[in-house]
Amino acid sequence: MGVMSANDSMPPITPLDASAAVSIRGLFKQFENKIAVNGLALDIPVGSFYGLVGPNGAGKTTTLNMVTGLLVPDGGAAMILGHDVWRDVNTVKRMIGVMPQPSQIFDRLTGLQLLVYAGMLRGMKRAEAVKRANDLLKAFDLEASANVIVADYSAGMTKKICLASAMIHSPRVLVLDEPFESVDPVSSANLRDILIEYAATGGTVIVSSHVMSLVEKMCTHVAVINRGQVCAAGTVEQVAAGEDLEERFLQLVGGRHQAAQLDWLDGGAQ
Ligand SMILES: Nc1ncnc2c1ncn2[C@@H]1O[C@H](COP(=O)(O)OP(=O)(O)OP(=O)(O)O)[C@@H](O)[C@H]1O
């Protein structure tokens, strides 16, 4: 093997894939002196259930915010179903459903009102929005709380109403940041079924999650993100490479250290 020149270490830049649900090249974002996303490239096929995993601060949320047109990148390009995200942001926003953070919703509305509002905001007629809102409340086990204001929901219920509000306009791509956090096992199994069926019928789901067992169980594909770059991506089987996905994740991102470093903790002994 010859000596590597600077050019050898730079991967060739392949063009954006217009047939992908999401195609990203050279995405870059810096906050003051912190590089959050560092030349990230990824293709997410249509109909896939794609997991984004990575340690805290790896750049997952920053990437998703840029790809969904919520945050302007410092460099790079992204396409959703063939449309350039920043040149054509309104078209892109019509095609995607982004789960809002609980702090971003109008929580003085009831669950039903919030969903109808989300539907009408996307241009739906009130009657259709009400019908779909009721279907979603039922699917998400929230029927009994339809007329309760969202501020009085538990954390898991709030998460579910946020997810429902991202789905009401039947988007072609769903982008979900930590959708299962605080959601109980029964609800999360129901949500999983809804999302798997949505992907099986041609929708694309992108989830960021720290729960490796869930990613392994429900995702068709996974990308491991570390320090603002993709360090492995492909089908779950390809990335796991014959091992448990969590084990593989730990190998890829490193960072395990000895618990003994906290010897003062000492089981709480005085
Ligand atoms: N608005 C901001 N201002 C300054 N730094 C930021 C901002 N947003 C993110 N960062 C920094 O960018 C890096 C990537 O953050 P990001 O939220 O994208 O990570 P993440 O992979 O989603 O992490 P987590 O798994 O903990 O949610 C972190 O170091 C974070 O501190």
TrEMBL record:
Membrane topology: Peripheral membrane protein
Keywords: Antibiotic resistance, ATP-binding, Nucleotide-binding, Transport
ABC transporter domain sequence ranges: 22-252
Record carries keyword Secreted: no
Pfam families according to UniProt: ABC_tran (PF00005)
Keyword Cytoplasm in annotation: no
Top-level taxon of origin: Bacteria
CDD domains in UniProt: ABC_DR_subfamily_A
InterPro entries: AAA+_ATPase, ABC_transporter-like_ATP-bd, ABC_transporter_ATP-binding, P-loop_NTPase
Compartment(s): Cell membrane
PANTHER family for this protein: ABC TRANSPORTER ATP-BINDING PROTEIN (PTHR42711), DOXORUBICIN RESISTANCE ATP-BINDING PROTEIN DRRA (PTHR42711:SF19)
The protein's name: ABC transporter
